[in-house]
Amino acid sequence: MVRRREARRATFTHLCTTLLWLFTCFNELNAVKIVKIVVPEIIQYGVQDAVVLDCDYVYGNNTSGLVVKWFFRNKARPVYQWIVSQKPQDMGILRGRVDLTYRASNDPLKMHRALRIVKPNTDISGEYTCVVSTFMEEDSRTKQMIVFVPETSFRLIQNKTDDDTVNVICAADGAFPAPNLTLATPERRLDGVSHELKLVNGRYSAVASVTLLDADLPSPAEFICTLRIPLAKYAVRKEAIYYPGPISTTPEMPTAADMQLAAAVGSKGTSTRTLIALVLLPALAHSLLVLK
């Protein structure tokens, strides 16, 4: 009796295993699966005329209803859609910005899987999700792309005041994504630094400033400003030598905008709004020249 039960149990287990194997094989034969998604992590604005985002996949025997969709930042609405046997469509933020004639493969079930975005700008920075689906299966992958812009101007200014102090000011314009500014000496990062950040016409302007006592500084003193754009893995720096006392030097002659900025930071009654306005003047002027 016991042997019969064990035999039945073994037969039942074998049958279940066989059915599971057959079910898995059936799914594999009809599955669609993304094997590789290629999205450039970082590209610099203005360096290349177009960028390609690719989404390669394998498919089974049943490809009924095969559709490739790309989503930007969220999955609410696609920015690109290709239904096999139909023409690809660009939508939303990418409408009119995708080369719809581009072919990533000669395979008729893969040829329009990729996005070729023409003249990429900073507004298309973000996460891209590729979704490949049939009536039976669906698969998706997500990657981020950053279109970054280096600064158009980067200044390290020293403003000597009458009360034996110096204002050290670092300002940058025209960057994207948002830059970080740090002020330091070769020995340490400076404390008490104030920061301002403003977005104008899709580009960031940033200011870092600190007021120091001459009595607390060596002669000469070296100041270092470092600009970093972490999302773009980008960094540049400027250095300046300062001599405490009635005379100070900078590595370059200050411009009229530098003098206005230094005066604004040095004035105790200056509002944050006024300071930001002075920082943004070069950026606005540059934007107007570009528009012309």
From TrEMBL:
Residues 1-31 form the signal peptide. Keywords: Signal. This is Ig-like domain-containing protein.
